[in-house]
Amino acid sequence: xxxxxxxxxxxxxxVATARRRARPWRWAAGVALAVVAAQLAWFLVNNDRxxxxxxxxYLFEPTVLSGLATTVLLAVVAMAIGSVVGGLLAAxxxxxxxxxRWAATLYVGVFRGIPPxxxxxxxxxxxxxxPRISIGIxxxxxxxxxxxxxxxxxxxxxxxxxxLVESAYLAEIIRAGLLGxxxxxxxxxxxxxxxxxxxxxxxxxxxxxxxxxxxxxxxxISVLKGTAxxxxxxxxxxxxSVQVIYNRTYQIVPLLIVACLWYLVVVTVLTIGQRWxxxxxxxxxxxxxxxxxxxxxxxxGAAA
Length: 304
Description:
Elements: H1 24-46, H2 52-58, H3 62-93, H4 98-113, H5 116-124, E1 132-136, E2 142-147, H6 148-151, H7 154-179, H8 183-191, H9 196-226, H10 238-249, H11 252-281, H12 283-303
Antiparallel strand pairs: 1-2
Helix pairs in contact: 2-11, 3-4, 3-7, 3-9, 3-10, 4-7, 5-7, 7-9, 8-9, 9-11, 10-11
Family: Belongs to the binding-protein-dependent transport system permease family.
GO molecular function: transmembrane transporter activity
Pfam family, one: BPD_transp_1
């Protein structure tokens, strides 16, 4: 009969006496980052050309705050219109009706392919192509018409241009989110007697939002920063407001810092909101993932 002998105690590592492995490269990287941060702080504080007193003077200037409000308003309106149109485009791209699918794909390709700045200038000069804008029956009588120069203001051109660009990007984001839901979820909902509308609203959309929210939040931040482009069509946004001031005072750098600070504040607030929405729509998924990990860990421990 063979007797199994226990291995010597030296073969086992005592966790209680274990020490963290030294990683010199981490210490070196940390020191290098600290040096760079100190150098940057020294540059910001001791360079008189930043003119921080001028920055503080104009940070809450009524003209600047008005431009900030216009920037946020443009971003919200463009995102709202883009979300609605993008959702319809996503549904059209997933449709079984080929002409509708082709039209939606062409729309997305065109408005994603043309730079937003070019689109803003084009829509602002729409009166060159259409001196009068009218609605009515195609090739038939007109119900109403307006002078294009009076209708296409900088605000109208900015809303149209930004909304069209956003709708094209959001269409792809929403389409990807809907395709990311397992088809078995739809089959299970139908087996439970859900109508197609109930299946979409209560099963598909909540799961798709987990995929849609992160890129949509990033796109919202992008359109907020992209509103700076409307300054080329004399729209009184945040950038245009500070440009008007520094064209009068010639204090270019301090006024640009004012704009940068306000952009950073708004983007930070939007990022916090985006993180909250991500956690909200990931609650069930995160709980399920944690539960599976605990189950696997328990089963491994029992097997051991």
